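2024-03-11 09:14:02 INFO queue: dequeued item RNI-like protein, len=314
2024-03-11 09:14:02 INFO validating residues
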Amino acid sequence: GVLSSCLLVNKLFYTITKSILSERMIFRSQNCLEAFAQCEKETLSGMRPKTLKLDRLYHAKQSTLESIGRVIDARCIETLEFFLCPKLAPPLAFFTSSLLSLTAAGSRVFDDSLLIELAQRSRQLQSLDIRACDLVTDTGIHAVGVHCKRLVRINLGRKKKGHLISDSSVATLVKNNPFLETVGLAGTFVTDVTIWELAINCGRSLRRLSLNGCRGISDKSLSKILNCGLVPDLCVLEIRDVPGITDLRLIVKFRRHQALKGIFLCIDANEATSACLKECEYRIDLLSSPLMRQDISEWVNGKDNDTLYTDFLS
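2024-03-11 09:14:37 INFO prediction written
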């Protein structure tokens, strides 16, 4: 683009343009990543990116990433995103005190040892997305909960090995992060204990909650929490394949209550649950309509204790 052309003007333009380009480094092709790694050391030196994103590099090699990590200055990296890069894990040099956001979704090599290093080195972390990182267990999550206390977004969802993440670690993380807005727990083995901890500690800030496939959750937590108003700003609720949630009436009432406040609650559920939600809405309407008519009739026909007009004429 235009910035690439600026590299060819003169030395001053080259220096300034290089600094701008290096702030956001995004690789969507394995060939581009390898070509960048093969650049001369003088070309890469001095690059201090704030954002480094690798997107869908299914066959990229860890050695290529390590060679880049040894040359660029990672001290300023704030956003680190490895999305669907199954063979890649962030080099330890990328875990700095400046790091605010890490995504390693779909990594087959990201494990507890890396998560512990991240927790100890990047304590200002605000966003953590480790969906489908099947090597991560309660050990790594607990370390994050102990050391990182400014989290706003977490996503621990997975389809495999859900038993490796449970209340023992997630409850600790939730207790120490009262400003969580987005929480993804799909497929994990958390129970009602975690949901209550989440509502008590983070309820005021919670906006998005994913519980798809969480078979340890029941009406003892979610329905009661919604009914008690502990999550006043919740606008996204994902409850696919959660057989323990059966009292959908309270969920419907909560959605209507949110609508009165101008908050549209998006509920993501499977077909059977969605049909039950519609049935609950229909039944609530049937019960409420006669009551509404009765209230209106009593108000219209009731005595209002106003002075009769004849009293004014006399």
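2024-03-11 09:14:37 INFO annotate: The chain has a mean pLDDT of 87.
2024-03-11 09:14:38 INFO item closed
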